[in-house]
Amino acid sequence: MRIVLRRGCFAPHATNLNCLAQGLPALARAIAGRDDRALQSAAFDAAAAPTGIQRLVMELEPETHAHAHKSGHSLVDMMLALSALVLSVVSMIIAIQNHHAMKQLVMANSWPYLQHESSNVSSSGKAVVLLGVSNAGIGPALIDKFTVSYQGTPIKDTSDLLRHCCAKDAGDVLAMKANLITGGINGRAVSAKEHFYFLQMEKPAQGPSLDQWQALDRARAHVSTAVCYGSVLGDHWITTSDDFRPRQVESCDALPGTAFQEE
Prior knowledge:
By secondary structure, this protein is α+β, with helices and mostly antiparallel strands. The protein has helices spanning 16-32, 36-40, 74-109, 158-165, 170-177, 208-219; strands at 2-5, 58-61, 114-121, 127-135, 141-150, 153-155, 180-182, 189-190, 195-202, 223-230, 236-240, 247-249. Strands 5, 6, 8, 10, 11 and 12 form a six-stranded antiparallel sheet that branches. The longest helix is centred in the middle third of the chain and has 36 residues, at 74-109. The radius of gyration is 49 Å and the shape is elongated.
């Protein structure tokens, strides 16, 4: 609390010491007697001070301090704080679940699924040996690694495949390659419902080329392929010609063997 002088006691012929001497006894009596009303106003008049001091009024003003608003009940305050904490935790859990659900929805709408194809008839009905993949999924497939083997032996390129399956010598390899349509498959993006063939050979009418086509058609039953591909979201899967079920992996390093290269 603080003491305020409402009217001055400093008359022309009064001194500070005389002023305090006149005013302090009344203030002391008020404090000793616990007189609240006297503490609110302690005064002496001009008759007590022949020097002409008019009046000394002293007031005690309470000091106020700002405090955080409380309900007045500790249990209620604790329950309010706990309720706010629970609501925050629940909101966070709901946000995480919504994020997971949205990610699953996006994955479902962009999921690629590569299947392996081995055929001797084209979609138009022509006799053509076809080896490749098709995307039966919804989103594009980004081929990271594609491998080929023949009767369990890894194949590195088209010439290597022809030497193992069909050609008797290097001359046959060159002759067969002249009738082949080939395409690089590693690093290629295959859109939804698209087919891509890394090897095609149309059936010739007659001659030595017909024998080579028939040899290749018989050999394709022993050709195995495997592919590791990714989605636009960065997820990766592996499928093989022996097992079409996609197996999700962290990266395409999980697919063993040497990648098949187009010459």
